[in-house]
Amino acid sequence: MIYLDNAATTALDPRVLDAMLPWLRTQYGNPSSDHALGRPAREAVEKARAQVATLINATPEEIIWTSGATEANNLAIKGALEFRALKNPHIVTSRIEHRSVLDTCRYLETRGVRVTYLKPDSLGRIAPADVLAAAVPDTALVSLMWVQNEIGTINEVEQIASALRERGILFHVDAVQAAGKIPIDLARTPIDLLTLSAHKLHGPKGIGALFVRKKPRARVAPQMHGSGHELGMRAGTLPTHQIVGMGEAYRIARSEMMADADRTGGLREELWERLQQLPKIHRNGDPHNSVSHILSVSFEGVEGESLRAMLPGVALSSGSACSSATREPSYVLRALGRDDELAGASLRFSLGRFTDEAHIRGAATQVVEAVERLRQLSPLWQRAA
Amino acid sequence: MSLPNVFGYPAPVWRRFREPSHAGPIAANGSPLISARAGTPASKSLIELGLRLDDSGTVVEARFQAYGCPTTIAVGEWLAEQAQGRGVAQWAEITAADIRGALEIPDDRAHVAVMGENVVRSVGKQVGK
Predict the structure, then answer these.
(1) How many CB pairs under 8 A join A and B?
(2) CA distance A215 to B26
(3) Contact call for residues A289 and A316 (beta carbons, < 8 A)
(4) Domains in chain A and their CATH numbers?
(5) Is B69 close to A303, i.e. CB distance below 8 A?
(6) Measured distance CA(A377)–CA(B68) in Å, rounded
């Protein structure tokens, strides 16, 4: 099996696993307990908090543990709105956000919140001018992703953050595909709330974090009530082993991020070059401003479900309707202007720390064979040729 | 090429999708040919079938081309398989229910079997059935 679905999740780095195991075996104390097993767990949690903060140049006190990015996005958006308790609040987001942002916004619409969904350009970029133009006096929050998870396009969040800070509008950024892939410096970038995940960068599933800025202070109302953990913003017993794993994954990412990016960037370009032996294929996203680990390609003349079915030996994401929970072709690619057919006949290749040249060559060979075979079978392609 | 059916297609569909033996256009060589096509506008799927007959109306060569999901391709292959060596009038009695039963096509793909029946009916009209 060739694994090229690292934007969905990544293999656990063995160093992360080693860091986690003691906290599953013998060090099982509750980090909130004040005794001989609890205190080391608390220290481990705080060490990990510092490791996560360091990667994004924040302070440890600004990191709130969550069960993952979906919860962090929910906490950021619903929590920020609830805390501000505006009468007629308005949110600005985009049509190509992750479902955990879009569905949260849609839920809030049922509660009377107005939401503006910005349209990206054909490369998946959200224009800073469009963000500012959409903001109105009632705008409580802008929520955008740093890196688009299907196509890899990097948004100009630094520019947007500065403009929003000048206007006093809270800015939430989903940085799940950015953290550990591109430099993030929150000491210089005035983002108020930032969502993080562990399992996208070789950490464990089931753990994430929300950065909540201290100065100027961003406030969110808790969405999970209990014993006042995490400065009262997120109750629940802290999973020490997962938190330690996330800390270790972020520590490794800090030291290896640039080397990983160089390597995956080279492999991605090799993959794109090999795929281009096929005519009539289209690269999605912004080739000049994208993360190094994502390549999205649409193939003319093949049907999406058959294309996916022809590739059982390659684990990757497909834009086809049958591979989505909604039974519709990728909403992201359609928002970029791809028609349903082409959006469905798209593949996202996403590389990780353990992807090597043999994987790239093998995947390229299988995809080329699959597309050629389906095109040979298609009367439409034969007539067009 | 034997690859695992990781997406859980019915075995008769998967086998024909992976290894169709009647794929491709049928060549004109002077002997009588019948061709038919049917599609589903909703999903833009398409099956084209070509049959070469001998003087007695027996199919001596059957070929198909298809654009669509794996079930569409499997239906094209199955129709061609069934036609090969058989009297075309008898073959033209195949129904959507026959196709669904043979390929174990589930409810959510029933429209593909109907598309297959439409191909058969088109042939049937041409041979006077």
Answers:
(1) 55
(2) 73
(3) no
(4) 14-252 (3.40.640.10), 257-371 (3.90.1150.10)
(5) yes
(6) 10
Per-residue tokens: A210: 């929300």
Q: How far apart are CA A338 and CA A19, in angstroms?
A: 44
Instruction: Select which of A129, A322, A384, A385 is catalytic.
Output: A322
Q: Are A313 and B3 inside 8 Å of each other by CB?
A: yes
Q: What is the pLDDT along chain A (385 residues), one digit of tens a residue?
A: 999 999 999 999 999 999 999 999 999 999 999 999 999 999 999 999 999 999 999 999 999 999 999 999 999 999 999 999 888 999 999 999 999 999 999 999 999 999 999 999 999 999 999 999 999 999 999 999 999 999 999 999 999 999 999 999 999 999 999 999 999 999 999 999 999 999 999 999 999 999 999 999 999 999 999 888 888 899 999 999 999 999 999 999 999 999 999 999 999 999 999 999 999 999 999 999 999 999 999 999 999 999 999 999 999 999 876 655 556 788 999 999 999 999 999 999 999 999 999 999 999 999 999 999 999 999 988 778 7
The percent of chain B in helix, strand and coil, each rounded to the nearest 5, is 40, 20, 35
Helix axes B11-18, B70-83, angle to 10 degrees: 80
Is A105 labeled as catalytic in the residue annotation?
no
**Chain-centre distance of CA A141, in angstroms?**
19
Identify whether the C-beta of residue A144 lies closer than 8 Å to the C-beta of residue A189.
no
Within 13 A of A47's CA, how many CA atoms are on the CB side? 16
Contact B65 A378 (CB under 8 A): yes
Q: Is B56 exposed, middle or buried (0-12, 13-18, 19+ CB in 10 A)?
A: exposed
Q: Classify burial at A9, counting beta carbons within 10 Å of its beta carbon; exposed 0-12, middle 13-18, buried 19 or more.
A: middle
pTM across the whole model: 0.94
Which chain A residues have a beta carbon less than 8 Å from that of B73? 306, 377
Domains of chain B (ranges, CATH numbers): 11-126 (3.90.1010.10)
